[in-house]
Amino acid sequence: MTMRRWRRAALLAGAVLAGCAGGALAQPSAPRAGLDPSFGVDAFPSTYRPAPSVPTAIINATILTAAGPRIDNGVLLLRDGKVAAVGRDVAVPAGVQVIDAKGRWVTPGIIDPHSHIGVGSSPGEANGDGSNESGPNAAGIWVEHAVWPQDPMFERALAAGVTTTMILPGSANLFNGRTVTLKTTPALSPQGMKMPGAPYGLKIACGENPTGGGPGKPGTRAGGMLGYRTTFAAAAAYADQVREYRRKVAADQPAQAPRRDLALETVAAALEGQVKVQIHCYRADEMLQMIDLSHEFGFKIAAFHHALEAFKIAPVLAREGIPVATWAGDWSGYKMEAYDSIMENAGILEAAGGVVAMHSDNVMIMQHLNQEASRAMTAAREAGLNVTYEDAIRWLTLNPAKILGIEARSGSLEVGKDADVVVWSADPFSVYSLPDLVLVDGAVMHDRSKPPSQPRSDFELGLQKRPEASK
Amino acid sequence: MIRRKSILAALLVLAAASPAAAETLAIVNARVVSLGAAGDLPRGAVLVRDGKIVDVGASVRIPSDARVIDAAGQTLTPGLVATISPLGLNDTIGSGWPGRGSTDPRLSAGFDVAYDVDPNSPQIPEARVEGVTAAVLAPTPASAAAGAPRKVFGGQLGVIQLSDSGDYLVAPHVAVLTALGEGSTSTAGGGRGAWRGLIKQSLALARDYRAGRVDEGKLEALSLSRADMEALAPIVDRRQPLVVEANRASDIRLALATAREENIRIVISGGAEAWLLAKEIAAAKVPVILDAEDNQAFTFDSLNATYRNAAILNQAGVLVAFKPGIARIVFLIRTPRYLAGRTVPYGLPWEAALAAITVNPARIFGFDGAKGSIAPGKDADLVLWSGDPLETTTVARRVLIGGVEQPMTSRSRQLRDRYIDAVRPAKAAPES
Asked: Which of A151, A234, A394, B178 could make a disulfide contact with A118, Cβ separation 3.0–4.6 Å?
């Protein structure tokens, strides 16, 4: 979709939203919130509260802001959970907590745009696609309803510098449901981790996982495309019904609320641009087909995930403004659609002017996403592409923020943004580098020098023995 | 620049083609990490003749007919060994344990995975360009369908080299695999006791077999075959180890006790909680092949998994090697070197980390006489790195197997070269 068409769709969405605002509840005959099809109501609102923080200055640091060139010997000033100043010549105000990062590196917190932690929890199907529902259309699923906040992986992700992650439902279906964007900080419920204001995503899956027959599954990719088109058409009609209902309510005319359809509601919201379309897709030809589909129904693709063959269509993806979330690109071949995987995938997308992010999809990779970026960067450089540290840090922070739609407040160390920060023991692109400190909204949530006496997860309490820290 | 380099490399390979093994080759001015008696030489040389290492040291006499590679600024190490690897066993790898296994009810220990290797698999060059020169291939642990006979052995492990020539098999059947854990013991008959009983009965039959006594009725009762007995004979003779896949400390302890009772050599594979038993494992001289990335309770068998595992075991004197994790193997087929590098900030000394992916697996599986370190008489399996081989920003510049310089090409690099030109100028051109 061109930018113009996208903007038009966004305007339309805005109009629908505006029409919805407050209308239903103002009517005496209005349905209860759960029956209201206006899809403007957030039934599971975020209860996230940042931990208390004190004004903090990180000094003498090598800073990769993800928003400009590397700053040597720099100062990062955090106040009220936000970045207050960053640069070489930032005065450190009296009375602030000072962290001397001499010899160390500072980056934004890593944002993992594709994980299944909390859903494919440990112990259990740690590597599985959590929350795979049966039936080709599981769009009504909200993955947050399956998130177990006691998954021990959250603590490990945070210790690895991941401060925010989008958790997706599985890929067994054409439409797999809503994603959720969480901070990796402790809470008793998923709502307590939900990043306030982060838009929802709709996970769509292409290729081998949602096809191949079996109960409720299309047999072929063609059947899959039929499923997408049928569902988008139905969702567009549903959106029309809802719009008409809203119009009548607003005009004080008698109106019967359409029966709320949770699956179509999410797909309609995706068509309207309120929910970001996140597509699991490996092959270049399938990505091109999905781009055509997005044009046919007028929705914007927020990102292709995995996208091992993105390098084959890098200029198209750049032109379409479609980001890619992928791995370093180790030869995988774990299934046919993953046969063509190259280490230079990210570098080629970067060189084409595209937006690329490292994702994990896996609890091990989630704990060294910085090394994924490093290896992808190294391969690209070896192939003669000019990929810099400044590019590679964006693969871990600002670009995933764009994919998630949270870039206005997260993903880079710019004044006013959330103070999600990692202080690395060394160059973050070294295999030997570890997060010394991880700050979320300005508060130190992980300190490698002071391991907690008890595990954070209730599950591990009294079960897990931990060795003494290294050295 | 890059292009010219690869053409040059290709020419060198052509030049090195058939009589290559007879070539005399000197690699000079490299940092040489020998993992042998020569130690870690900041500026050393290695002389190769007829595919073997002839000399290594700070100063080596170079014959006038030798081809000389000036490797200043680069690091030379032994070729890496991928351990408990699925390399070349499958055309595509399913998620989960990716190897091959016997579904024949009367074939378990005797199943030899070496017959499943395809030396033409594209996976082999992918690993080779990353500096992997040999692999210890493992079958899947025993599995049994409901109602099928119980099994404890997955089959035999084999060693291959990743040479571009056809000569790939280093040694078939170097060990036998069994698994002891939450899933595997159900295959053995419902629990740890069933595993122990079946192991002991099977080894007793193998001893009978060694003594020339074959009771077909007893074999059949345990769903074992003569092929299984052939495979278990070197185990009861202590010529080969039994590899026991075990993660829970209590399972590792049971494996140690069973090995003691049966007077067999074992190797622990997995070993998530091995650090809790570091002293016992060291005292029993049992090597451990770790999933170096395991740091959490994937299952209840690994509640106490930690990144510090390797460091603690190494400090206790345990011989440690690394393998990719079962479920994560799909991402790690190319190289074990980052597995090793990641353990260093958790306390494993750098050289021990490198040893865990070179000489240690060679020792564990008995091919250290030929491979695993840089020492006179050993195969010239060598890798020249752009820097620290465990570092993510380092690449392999040259790979030699048996003294023959290997092509630095792979299918994924060919794919790259087919598409990369479309974006080369884009970065330079001003973006609108």
From this structure: A151
Using a CB-CB cut-off of 8 Å, the residues of chain A touching B304 are 464-466
Q: Of B64, B69, B66, B57, whose CA–CA distance to B24 is shortest?
A: B66
CATH number assigned to the domain comprising residue A138: 3.20.20.140
* pLDDT above 90 (res B128): yes
If DSSP states are collapsed to H, E and C, what string results for B5-44? Answer: HHHHHHHHHHHCCHHHHHCEEEEEEEEEECCCCCCEEEEE
Q: Can you give the residue ranges of every domain in chain B?
A: 2-78+383-418, 80-371
Render pLDDT for B150-204 as a digit per residue (tens, 0 to 9): 899 999 999 999 998 868 999 999 999 999 988 777 788 888 999 999 999 999 9
The one-letter code for the residue type at B50 is D
Provide the domain limits for residue A403.
3-49+108-419
User: Which residues of chain B are within 8 Å of residue A127 when distances are taken between CB atoms?
Assistant: 95-96, 298, 327-328
Amino acid in the structure at residue B382: L
The Cα B266–Cα B204 span in angstroms is 17
Decide if A333 and B92 are in contact by the 8 Å CB cutoff.
yes
Q: Give the class (CATH, top level) of B80-371.
A: alpha beta
DSSP per position, A88-103: SS----TTSEEEE-TT
- Alpha helices, H only, B80-191: 123-128, 184-188
Residue B115 backbone phi and psi in degrees, to 5: -75, -15
Q: Which pLDDT tens digit goes with each residue over B255-277?
A: 999 999 999 999 999 999 999 99
Q: How many helices (H) and strands (E) does chain B have?
A: 13, 16
CA distance A352 to chain B (A): 5
Residue A120 in any domain: the answer is yes
From the list A121, A152, A446, A124, the residue with the least C-alpha distance to B295 is A152
**Which CATH number fits the domain B2-78+383-418, given the four candidates 2.60.40.1740, 3.40.50.11540, 2.30.40.10, 3.40.50.1860?**
2.30.40.10
Task: Using pLDDT thresholds of 50, 70 and 90, give the confidence band for residue A37.
Answer: confident
Q: Which of B366, B341, B364, B345 is closest to B77 using CA atoms?
A: B341
Give residues 407 to 466 of A whose Cβ lies within 8 Å of B. Answer: 425, 429-434, 459-460, 463-466
Please count the structural domains in chain A.
1
- Could you say which of B303, B331, B411 has the minimum Cβ distance to residue A362? B331
Q: 3-class DSSP state for residue A194?
A: strand
